[in-house]
Write a structure and sequence with these properties.
Blueprint: E1 9-12, E2 27-33, H1 34-38, H2 42-49, E3 54-61, H3 67-80, E4 84-89, H4 91-104, E5 111-116, E6 128-133, E7 138-143, E8 151-154, H5 164-183, H6 189-210, H7 214-234, H8 238-250, H9 254-269, H10 273-285, H11 292-305, H12 319-335, H13 348-356
Parallel strand pairs: 1-8, 2-3, 2-4, 4-5, 5-8
Antiparallel strand pairs: 6-7
Helix pairs in contact: 3-4, 5-6, 5-7, 5-9, 6-7, 8-9, 8-12, 9-11, 10-11, 12-13
C-alpha cells in the first residue's frame, strides 16, 4: 500500500499575508536573517499583520545554517517560549526554524508557519531541513515528518525585490526539484502530477522572472511550492546529493550547483528506461522534442540565458582542487539521504565521472 498526503495548509493569492491576522494575541518568534529584518523593510509589513502579538525576532540566520547557529536558535526559542515560530525568508531561515523547533522539543511544540521570500527551496511544504557542519564542510539533510510546517503563506509581493542572480539560482533549484521528484524511486501518479505542473510552470516563467516580471515571479513561487510537495512525497536523487556535497565543501549557491549538474544527471539516469520516458514527457510538456537529449539541450540553453556557469572553475574552484577532492565529495554524496532515491543506482566512480564534467 502507498500513501500520498498534502500538508501543510497553504494560503496563497492576493494579500495572502492577511492570514497572519489569525494569530492575534499570540506569542510569535520570527526567524529570519539580518537583511530581511533590518534593511529590506519587508519584515515591518509582517509585523503589522501580527496584531496584539508579543513578538521576538531571531535574525541571526546565515546562508547554509550551521549546527552551531541552530543551537543558538534553540536557546532563543526556549527562552522566549513562543506559541508560533514564524520562518520568514528563503530556504535558510525556513530550514533553521524547522531545526530549532525540532530540537527545542516541547509537548506540544509551537506551531510553525513559513513565509518564503524566494521561489526555490519549497521548504515551506517539506519535511526536509539542510544544515551545515561548518567544521567538517559537510551538509546534512534532515528528513522527518516532525519538520513539516503547519502553515505556508505564499505572498508573491514579497519577491518583487529579489535580484536576477538569486532568481536564477532559486529558479533552477525549482526545476531540479521537479525533475528529480518525477523520476525518483518513490514517485507516484500524485507526486508526478505536482512535479510535472511545477516543471512546466517554471520552464515558461523563469526567464521572465529573471528579467524582472513580477507576475512571473509569482508563478515561480507557486512552482516552487508544487515541486516541494512532489519531491517531499517522491524523494530526490544524485543531483541533490552531489550539490549538497559540493556546497558543503565550496560554499557555492545550491541552485547554481544544481544547474551545473542537472544536464549530466539527466544523461546518466536516461540509461534507465523508466526515467528516460519521464524525462521525455517533461521535455514534451515544455514544447521540446519528446526525448531526454532535447531536455538536456533545453536545460543548457535556459542556463546560458540566465547567465549561469556550466563549470566549477567559473565559481573559483580550480580543476586540480576538484580532482584532489573527488573521492571525498563522491563519498559524501553517496552517504547523502537523497542518493537512494535516484532511479538508477550510482557508484562512487559514476559520481566522480559526473563531477569531472564540471571541470
Amino acid at each position: 500500500m502507498e500513501l500520498f498526503a498534502i500538508r501543510p495548509e497553504i494560503r496563497f493569492g492576493p494579500d495572502a499575508l492577511a492570514a497572519l491576522e489569525e494569530l492575534a494575541g499570540r506569542r510569535v518568534l520570527i526567524v529570519t536573517d539580518e537583511f530581511l529584518a533590518r534593511k529590506s523593510g519587508l519584515l515591518e509589513g509582517v509585523k503589522e499583520r501580527l496584531k496584539s502579538c508579543e513578538i521576538s525576532v531571531f535574525d541571526q540566520v546565515k546562508p547554509d545554517p550551521s549546527l552551531r547557529l541552530v543551537a543558538q536558535g534553540v536557546h532563543a526559542l526556549r527562552a522566549f517560549g513562543p506559541d508560533i515560530v514564524l520562518a520568514f525568508g528563503g530556504g535558510s531561515p525556513m530550514d533553521c526554524a524547522k531545526a530549532m523547533r525540532h530540537f527545542a522539543g516541547g509537548n506540544p511544540p509551537p506551531e510553525l508557519w513559513c513565509i518564503p521570500t524566494t521561489a526555490g527551496t519549497g521548504s515551506e511544504v517539506t519535511s526536509f531541513a539542510v544544515l551545515t557542519d561548518a567544521d567538517a564542510g559537510v551538509k546534512y539533510p534532515l528528513v522527518d515528518d516532525a519538520l513539516l510546517p503547519d502553515c505556508a503563506v505564499l505572498d508573491a509581493s514579497l519577491l518583487a525585490g529579489v535580484p536576477p542572480a538569486v532568481t536564477a539560482d532559486t529558479g533552477m533549484d525549482v526545476l531540479t526539484h521537479a525533475a528529480e521528484g518525477c523520476v525518483a524511486r518513490k514517485a507516484t501518479p500524485f507526486s508526478d502530477a505536482m512535479g510535472e505542473k511545477a516543471f512546466s510552470i517554471a520552464w515558461r516563467s523563469l526567464s521572465h522572472a529573471h528579467a524582472g516580471d513580477n507576475a512571473a515571479k509569482g508563478e515561480m513561487l507557486l512552482a516552487s511550492c508544487l515541486a516541494g510537495i512532489s519531491f517531499n512525497a517522491a524523494g530526490l536523487g544524485i543531483c541533490h546529493a552531489l550539490a549538497h556535497a559540493l556546497g558543503g565543501r565550496y560554499h557555492i549557491p545550491h541552485g547554481r550547483l544544481n544547474a551545473m549538474l542537472l544536464p549530466h544527471v539527466i544523461a546518466f539516469n536516461s540509461a534507465d528506461k523508466g526515467a528516460a520516458d519521464k524525462y521525455a514527457r517533461l521535455s514534451g510538456l515544455c514544447g521540446l522534442a519528446k526525448n531526454p537529449r532535447a531536455l538536456i539541450g533545453g536545460v543548457k540553453r535556459l542556463r546560458a540565458g540566465l547567465g549561469m556557469p556550466e563549470k566549477l572553475t567559473a565559481c573559483g574552484v580550480e580543476g586540480q582542487t576538484l580532482l584532489a577532492d573527488l573521492d571525498s565529495i563522491a563519498q559524501a554524496a553517496l552517504a547523502d539521504v537523497c542518493a537512494p532515491g535516484n532511479p538508477r543506482p550510482a557508484t562512487q566512480e559514476d559520481l566522480k565521472a559526473i563531477l569531472k564534467e564540471l571541470m
